[in-house]
Amino acid sequence: IYLTLYISIQEYFFFFKQKTAYEMLRSLVGSEMCIRDRYMGYAPVTDFWLSFLSLFLIITLRICIKKYFFKPVYGILADKFQDANRVKETQKMLKWIGDVVYYSLSTATGFFLMKNSDFMPYSLTGNGQCKNIFAEHPFGPDEPYLRTFITLQFGSHLYSFFDQVINKRKDFKFWEMLLHHILACQLIYFSYSFKYYKVAALVLLVHDPGDVILCITRFYNNIRNHNVLLLFAFLIMSVFVWTYTRVYVYIPVSYTHLTLPTIYSVQISVVAVSLKKK
User: Fold this and answer.
1) Are 91 and 100 in contact (CB under 8 A)?
2) Minimal CA–CA distance to 39: which of 244, 241, 271?
């Protein structure tokens, strides 16, 4: 949470306190004055049409799962769940089924799109390095496949936000999870607006595999007559995948982000100097 708040505050003030190319170098004229500014700004809503499509598809998926799998899941639920509690746990398990489907698809899509990228680290079977996530930022070439991945993922986080507001207002952790979803949506939006496509895509990717195994483990734990050894194996696998992706892989990405102001100022200075020479 601390890191998320730090990045959010950093991006907020960086957006409103940034200097234009003209303020940095008053000799710039015409189109040269805009070379710095054209890369930054709030992303228009039209850029996120895939997010709303993703939101619609996720809602459709959830409805279909609830319609066709409620009775089978209700039947295999452990006997310790009875009456209203049994219905509540069935709904949770249906949610986990949807999560497994979505996170599996998003993980497979992410690996397919980014497997040959220069920022895909060896720890994720890539051939790049995390330090390249800010290479040439924000003046690098457009990367539509990353924008597509980010906007599709944004739809999932929008669903989580609306689901929290509409269906979970009485939950004990309502405000905690609401803050979590708000910050997640904010970070994705600002990352997209500031052209942090690489870091946003990589962070989104490393968060999904752990959720797949975690949801499978929770589901298996709630069914009747589950095998204790198999459940233990799922638990160990869940802890390993979660720790590997969100600690071993994610920490280098977070550390790189903290060095962003220095990297960014150097890039702006180099561009300004080169324009002055011309």
Assistant:
1) no
2) 271
Which residue is associated with the tokens 């607006």? 193
Measure Cα distances from 53 to 49, 57, 86, 127, 170 in Å. Answer: 6, 6, 33, 32, 29
What's the CA gap between 46 and 250, in Å, rounded?
30
Annotate the chain with three-state secondary structure. Answer: CHHHHHHHHHHHHHHHHCCCHHHHCCCCCHHHHHCCHHHCCCCCHHHHHHHHHHHHHHHHHHHHHHHHHHHHHHHHECCCCCHHHHHHHHHHHHHHHHHHHHHHHHHHHHHHHHCCCCCCEHHHCCCECHHHHHCCCCCCCCCHHHHHHHHHHHHHHHHHHHHHHHHCCCCCCHHHHHHHHHHHHHHHHHHHHCCCHHHHHHHHHHHHHHHHHHHHHHHHHHECCCCHHHHHHHHHHHHHHHHHHHHHHHHHHHHHHHCHHHHHHHHHHHHHHHHHHC
Taking a C-beta distance cutoff of 8 angstroms, is the pair 226, 208 a contact? no
> Mind listing the pLDDT tens digit for each residue in 121-179?
888 888 888 778 877 777 777 788 899 999 999 999 999 999 999 988 888 899 999 99
The predicted model scores a pTM of 0.76
